[in-house]
Amino acid sequence: MHYIDYTIIVVYLLALIGLGVYLQRKASSSIESFFLGDRDMPWWALGASGMSSNFDVSGTMIIVAMVYALGLKGFFIELRGGIVLVMAFLMVFMGKWNRRAQVMTAAEWMELRFGRDKAGNAARVLSALANLLFAVTVVTYFAQGGGIFLAKILNIDPEWATIGIIGLSTIYTVASGLYGVVYTDVLQGFLVFFAIVATCAIAFFHYPLAETFQVSVPLIGEGFQTLDVNLDNWTNVLPSWTMDLPGEYGQYNLFGIAIIFYLFKTTIEGSGGSGGYLIQRYFAAKSDRDAGLLSLFWIFLLSFRWPFVVAVAMMGIAWGATGTVIENPEEVLPSVLSTMIPVGLTGLVIAGLIAAAMSTFDSVVNSGAAYWVKDIYQRFINPEASEKTLVAHSRWASVLIVIVGFLLTKQFKNINDIWGWLTMGLGSGLIIPQVIRWYWWRFNGYGFAAGVFAGMLAAFSQLIFFPDFTEYELFIYVASISLTACIIGTFATPAVEDSILINFYKTTRPFGFWGRIKESMPKKKMEGVDAENKRDILSTVIAVPWMLTLCITPMLLMVRQWPEFFTALGILTVLSVSLYFSWFRHLSTENDLDELEISTEEINTKRT
Fold it and tell me: Which residues contact 305 (CB under 8 A, 6 or more apart)?
């Protein structure tokens, strides 16, 4: 790179650290400030921050690799997590359900649902430990991907690159908590958006695809194989039932089954509400309306990731047409950006992607530290701790998560391995109990704790005893063990007290198997709740294909597939109008929520 590019990157990083340090005092008053920004942040800032956190370099490298090797059909592989399709569920109903709980972490939520007895405590502790473990592993994933990216760009050792990018991110994350995370993410979001637009314009006007070209895929073990590809096949976004790929990507050859499986897994995950840094934005939202608006803005901004991915893949293919084919698909992104972008613009684009990497890291570390401070240290070790002590623990927990995550980078061969195990292994152990807790009144704290514990054991046992499992086998193995443990733990122990269940239901108002509890509620109030739930179910059915089409449409524009582009644009328009009438115009305000609140006196009268 030119010295101008290096100057731009250095100035940006210094500005980022300066902003984080500036916000330090605001975040230091309490853990409510440190982890939730005092629940007083605007929805647009939370939404922009969420987009920056999802637009991570590691994930983008994987997605570019999939599209580069498989064509536009590679989009569907990332239904496993890269599309972040759970956002459709969070936008319509799951985001507001979580916000209504008025808690700081997903583990603290367990006491609202299961109570403060031994069962509730078990659920809270297991949830906290599982989310802490997940945060550490995501830091590992970030560190490996960010290190590969920065090492390739700057031509330095990957380990030193990892230490550098983690060190810079840690400074402002530890200093300023969620204030620093959100507002540095907003700054980073501007850079990311500029990087996307600039890269797409360069690819669209200067690197159109040839009729035939070559790509490369990784073989099992070591080495790569070059494949001949034609334009029609590469740009066809409609998924085929089967494919014929060699090597590591051969696990996707039963393509139709893979897509159905990923959709099934994503639906379960979305219905459970997710956790970590995703859900933290909703705990910090001011109102139900803000929860919906931040989701909508988040999804809209995130959809720009996909034309960017296609643009980079197109430029990677053009690289191969003029010289040597890029062998490792995971190196397409750094290879393209370090050589095929003009001076000056290179620095801005790379700064934008470093920003994307750091925003994922800071969000995960901040939300992960909350589980130690709020759910373990304050709840069970030192309930009388001062706010100053709690904020200090928040910072030390953040540092420890970073260190452990970095040390674990030695355990994985590549970032696709980490991502696959995170989404299909460790994530699967959390999904089942997270879903059941919302929809079944009989589910209790011991059932949740048993499901999470068994799921984590299953995920780690797979690494030791069944390392050759495919992603489908891994999900089925972990999820089935977790589900069995949930059921056994629930029926082997007493049900949650009615008073706790009633309080939970009137606070969050979910749909599902709550008939026994709903019978205690005044019928007139339940009519409003049922009407809202029916609208939400219908809107979710519309929101999922809407979000997919929102991502696919600009991809088709990038590869100049005009008939398919205009068809997708028409479908997107119809779905957008439908979603407006079924969901957007019904977005709740705080006053609307007040009218749905149910008093204890009304419940007692109904029971009498």
Answer: 54, 55, 60, 63, 196, 551
